Structure formats: C-alpha cells, structure tokens
C-alpha cells in the first residue's frame, strides 16, 4: 500500500491539461461490445478503473490493440462466455463499479448477460434498480437464484422489445446501460427522466455514428428505434470535468496562478458559475481557463442575505462528484456555505479529517455540512489521514497542499483510480508530493 507525503504551503504556477473523462470512458468501452467491427477510442485516461475495464474486456474475448499512449482499438467479434461465468470475471467486476454497464450491450447483441455485484467507491447505497427494472421492461428475464454468496445473476434477453419507461431516477450509468440495450432491441424504446450529462450525449452521438437511431439527445426524453446491427467508428473522449473542477479548487486553496488547458468549456455546464459564487476569479481564454493568484475569495450570499447553499442535482445541475472539492475550498473562503450532498449518504463523512486539520465544519447530518471559512487567516494543520474514495481523496490532497507542515495520506490507490499520475503532474507545477510505500 502506498502513501502520499505532502509538504504544504507551496504555490503552483504553470499550466495543466485534464485527462480524458473517466465516467465517459467506462460507458464508451462497454459500448464496444455492441458491434463486431473495429471501434477506436482516443484520449483514454490511463487510470486504474479504466485500465481494469480494458483488461476485463480483453479477458472476455475482445481484441484490444493499444495504438498510442491514450488510444486503443477494440473489436468484439465474439465473447468467451465460459470466462464470463468464471470466478475471475466475478472478482474483477466486483472491483469496478462501471462493470454493470457490460450487461446492456451483452444482452442486446448476444441475448444473454451476467451481472455480478459491482464494486467502486464506498460512499453509501448505490442502487441498481434503475438498471434492472429498465432491462426487465425491455423483456429481460433474471435468474436471481444464481446469486450464490456474491455470485452472478444470469439475464436472458431472447425476446426483447422496445417499450416506454419512466426511470425512477436520472441515473447516469442506468441511462447508459438502457441506451446500449435499446439500440439493438426491435421496436421503439422511450426513456423519460433519462440522465443527459455530456457523457451520455457523447455515448449517444457515438452510437448514432455506428448506425443507431436516437433522438432527443441532450434532453431527458430519449427515443430509440432499434436497428439490426451497428458498425465501427472512431471516438474521442471529452476532458474530465471533475479534474477541471478539482484544479480550479486547488488553485484557489493554494493561492496559485494556474492555466487549465483544453477544458471543453461549453461542456462544463454550471461548474464555472458555481466556483464564481464561491468568489473564485477566473477567465475563459478560448478553450482554456486561467485562474489568477488570489489571496482571498468571498462566498456570495443569496439576495435575501441567507447563507449560500451548494447542492448536487441531475444535469444540468451540479455533479455530486465535485461537492467534496467545494467543501474543502470553502474552508479557506471568506464567509460561510451549506454543502448539501443529496445523492450519497456517506460522502461527507471525510470532513472529520478536515476538522482535525483545524477546519470549521459542522456536520449537520449525513447529507449536509456547514463550513465557516478561515479566509486564509488560519492555515490548516498537517495530519495523517486516509482517502475513503476518489473524490474525497483529492479533496484531502488539496487540503494537505494548503496546510502548514507535512501531511500523510494513506490508501492513495483510491485517488489513483480516478486521477492519472496526480503527484507527478502537480509536482511539475511546484507541489511537493512524495509517493512512498507505507511501512508504518
């Protein structure tokens, strides 16, 4: 197990380019199962979750060719269902939340699929109801008896048929799974209350280039007319909006001057405006974001003078993956803010580490925390802490970079799941982060 030792108090300077979007990559890689033809994907982030999925696809029988550092070609002529029924497949899927999106493509193209309990961050209950109920409405039949102490669910889809469904929640992975199942399902499928994040839009546009018929892209009402087969295509992933937001917050917390390059600004949605409400100044320069060095940033209040609330919401609302970043940035702001995490009941539990560092935070309940900013008058104290999940891990890294003294962060494998070579990239900007084996 590795750790980060972080020497705080160093300002960053220079430019950084975000990696390809992790959440889009997981969807797009699963979609390569929908065709026997070659699909080439560019700007793939070389992070643990994505590399594990690529290795899993290869073991499933997909021909995988690495063309360049961030470009791969995939060809799923046939799948090895003996392997897909194996314990190794189950164990690998259990480590990877995105593995649930393999089921839709398998079901649509091959008429059968296997669903192990997927893994991922331990951030509270993450239901699969949207996936399972939607597939059942398309005509899939589940063998729940196959679940033997964490084994596999067997799903049959020999008689799938398009239908209308109102999703119980705007689940991004659930929407992606149902889209991929519906594009090869006979008849018309209507998805209402569908997620409409840019990554879902990217998936739909790629599938349309492959021959799918999807209308309503970028809305929460998708209409999909099934086709008999799909062809190959080339696809380039968007930059990761979560990395962009992380770097904006990092610049503000460390009082640094930073340029974030090639951010696909039009696909960031409300994210820049929310950082502006935190008082963080920045400029859009073409497709780059420039953050000047700023000693103070003041949180706005509402027009009636009440405390600012920042809450997650389905797109085009604020992505829940950035609330950890907003929370840690608020600890050194001027003013107060209520952070309301609506989707996951365990995602705010990392604030005890920030309180140990001297942050003024009141955890109201599992979903809400009030932060009273120090306005950089009192620096956070260095401490030893553990990364509980990807986003909280980066929030703790940002806190350590702004703190006084040397902090230690354990369980950094969680950070590596979502951020490629984060220590090397930040050290190139002036950070002091050392990766070590944990011998303690």
What proportion of the residues form beta strands (DSSP E)? 15-25%
Give a short account of the largest sheet.
4 strands, mixed
Rounded to the nearest angstrom, the distance between the terminal CA atoms is 10 Å
Rg over C-alpha atoms, rounded to the nearest angstrom = 22 Å
Number of strands: 23
Q: Strands across the major sheet, in which order? A: 21-22-1-23
What is the 3D shape?
globular
What structural class is derived from the secondary structure elements? alpha+beta
Mean pLDDT: 92
Number of helices: 15
* Unreliably modeled segments: 119-126
Short description:
This protein is α+β, with helices and mostly antiparallel strands. It contains 15 helices and 23 strands.
What attributes characterize this protein structure?
globular; 23 strands; four-stranded mixed beta sheet; alpha+beta; single chain; 15 helices; 440 residues
Structural features, described:
By secondary structure, this protein is α+β, with helices and mostly antiparallel strands. Helix content is 30%, strand content 23%. It has a four-stranded mixed sheet with strand order 21-22-1-23. The chain has a four-stranded mixed sheet with strand order 2-14-16-15, covered by helices on one side. Helix 1 (22-31) packs parallel to helix 8. The radius of gyration is 22 Å and the shape is globular. The chain starts with a strand and ends with a strand.
